[in-house]
């Protein structure tokens, strides 16, 4: 190995070492608790501002639907809740996995803080969905793939919390991380259920690859609402992390 | 501990303590009695429901005795824990499934389901119960150190039981209506293969955390 090669490897590993140290410091519980304590008021205020703008925009200024009239406006609560229920589960499972693999304590705390918020959003998605379903489908509930798998998601969140409560602290943290990871199997089923099976539930409104199936005058308040919900979730997680 | 040894050990234990699986069977019989007593309609799916409930109670104690007397630690020291877990599941499965199939056959004759439906029902049970036991090993592993764990195990497991139950139910219902049932059966089989691969690995990881 030539001298220049050796020097190259050395400097390269120096960068890696520095990054690792910086990252380890960055995710240390103290640093995160500090950051969270500083961040949550900003998150709270921006969440309130964005949700108010989105609500006023969506409820008063967005045009009414040509088929569903004003009743479609529940989409501004329903879709963000459903989106967040899946997103929170993914965050929870990813954090659980990083806790299991690298034993990052903060990741476990994020997973722990996520579960109740996720359960709340899932519950909200189910409730608003059935309120929307009654006038549009003529029924509060049907046992189709999307509704059933979303209900299972609620039970997964509740099971995670129950298991965590029932076991001693350290064991509970590790075991419930496994449960969160095993439960991931449900996420693609929920996401693709409207594509794979015939169902009363309409197809996806938002999609990464296709043009959204909704006019932009209705879309922007919806996206803003999703952003507001994400800020709410971040705010709650920060409030939980701050105390540790 | 080798797989053959474990298998023999477990079978002997089950033979010498028959109450562990006889209780589940008795529970199944009682649930069937209650259901046929209370409800007029006698659907083949009641058998699945009762079998599922009895299985939940049975699977909860899969690792518990071993955990309490310390032999689970020996199992954890073994080289290929997932394989050993399969070796532990199989005797429990057989001791629960075979009497269950006999009882189901008797009940089907009693309730006059007809030969076709009975055969499909037995086939779904034969293919579905291993799925429940594989998933059940997860639940048993989660709650191995909890004292009164049967409720907790049920809460954790039931959401995961839904797909297997759905496929089995649609196969039996289609058979009862004279429709093709093979599709649902194939999905049940696919579910079985997936669980056979994933569950022992997951149970091994969980056991190392909860019992280690």
Q: How does this model look, in words?
A:
The complex is a heterodimer of chains A (244) and B (212). Chain A is mostly helical and 244 residues long. Helix content of chain A is 79%, strand content 0%. Chain A is built from 8 helices and no strands. Chain A has helices spanning 3-26, 29-61, 75-102, 105-137, 145-166, 169-182, 186-196, 216-243. Chain A is globular, with a radius of gyration of 21 Å. The mean pLDDT of chain A is 87. With 212 residues, chain B is mainly α. Helix content of chain B is 84%, strand content 0%. Chain B is built from 9 helices and no strands. Chain B has helices at 3-16, 19-38, 45-59, 64-69, 71-77, 81-111, 115-142, 150-177, 182-210. In chain B, helix 3 packs antiparallel against helix 6 (81-111), helix 3 packs antiparallel against helix 8 and helix 7 (115-142) runs antiparallel to helix 8 (150-177). The mean pLDDT of chain B is 91. The interface between A and B is medium-sized, with 19 and 18 residues.
Mean pLDDT of chain A: 87
Shape annotation of chain B:
globular
Question: How many extended strands of chain B?
Answer: 0
Largest sheet of chain B: none
Q: What is the percent of helical residues of chain B?
A: over 70%
Radius of gyration of chain B: 17 Å
Q: Count up the helices of chain B.
A: 9
Could you estimate the helical fraction of the residues of chain A in percent? over 70%
Into which percentage range does the β-strand content of chain B fall?
under 5%
Distance between the termini of chain A: 49 Å
Sequence stretches where pLDDT stays below 50 over 5 or more residues of chain A: none
Number of alpha- plus pi-helical segments of chain A: 8
| Mean pLDDT over all positions of chain B | 91
- Summing up helix and strand content along with how strands pair, one would put the structural category of chain B as mainly alpha
Strand composition percent of chain A: under 5%
Order of helices and strands of chain B: HHHHHHHHH
**Distance between the ends of chain B:** 17 Å
């Amino acid at each position: 190995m030539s001298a220049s090669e050796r020097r190259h490897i050395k400097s390269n590993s120096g960068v890696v070492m520095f990054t690792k140290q910086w990252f380890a410091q960055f995710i240390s519980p103290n640093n995160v608790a500090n950051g969270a304590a500083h961040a949550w008021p900003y998150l709270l205020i921006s969440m309130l501002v964005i949700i108010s703008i989105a609500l006023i925009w969506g409820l008063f200024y967005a045009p009414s639907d040509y088929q569903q009239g004003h009743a479609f406006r529940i989409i501004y609560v329903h879709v963000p809740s459903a989106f967040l229920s899946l997103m929170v589960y993914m965050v929870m499972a990813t954090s659980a996995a990083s806790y299991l693999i690298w034993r990052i304590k903060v990741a476990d705390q994020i997973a722990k803080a996520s579960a109740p918020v996720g359960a709340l959003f899932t519950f909200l998605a189910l409730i608003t969905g059935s309120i929307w379903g009654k006038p549009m489908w003529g029924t509060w509930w049907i046992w189709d793939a999307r509704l059933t798998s979303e209900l299972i998601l609620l039970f997964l969140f509740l099971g995670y919390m129950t298991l965590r409560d029932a076991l001693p602290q350290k064991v509970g943290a590790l075991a419930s991380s496994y449960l969160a990871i095993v439960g991931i199997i449900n996420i693609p089923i929920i996401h693709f259920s409207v594509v794979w099976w015939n169902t009363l539930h309409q197809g996806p409104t938002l999609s990464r690859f296709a043009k959204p199936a909704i006019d932009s005058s209705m879309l922007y308040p919806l996206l803003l609402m999703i952003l507001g919900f994400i800020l709410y979730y971040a705010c709650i997680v920060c409030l939980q992390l701050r105390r540790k | 501990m080798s797989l053959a040894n474990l298998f023999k050990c477990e079978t002997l234990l089950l033979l010498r303590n028959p109450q562990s699986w006889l209780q589940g069977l008795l529970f199944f019989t009682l649930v069937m009695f209650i259901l046929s007593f209370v409800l007029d309609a006698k659907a083949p799916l009641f058998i699945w429901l009762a079998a599922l409930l009895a299985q939940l109670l049975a699977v909860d104690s899969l690792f518990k005795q071993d955990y309490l007397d310390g032999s689970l630690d020996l199992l954890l020291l073994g080289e290929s824990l997932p394989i050993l877990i399969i070796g532990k599941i199989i005797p429990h499965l057989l001791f629960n499934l075979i009497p269950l199939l006999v009882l189901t056959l008797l009940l089907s004759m009693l309730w006059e389901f007809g030969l076709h439906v009975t055969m499909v029902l037995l086939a779904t049970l034969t293919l579905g119960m291993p799925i429940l036991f594989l998933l059940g090993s997860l639940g048993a592993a989660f709650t191995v150190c909890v004292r009164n764990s049967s409720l907790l195990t049920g809460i954790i497991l039931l959401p995961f039981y839904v797909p297997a139950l759905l496929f089995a139910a649609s196969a039996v219902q289609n058979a009862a209506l004279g429709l093709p049932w093979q599709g649902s059966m194939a999905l049940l089989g696919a579910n079985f293969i997936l669980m056979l691969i994933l569950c022992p690995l997951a149970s091994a990881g969980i056991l190392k955390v909860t019992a280690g």
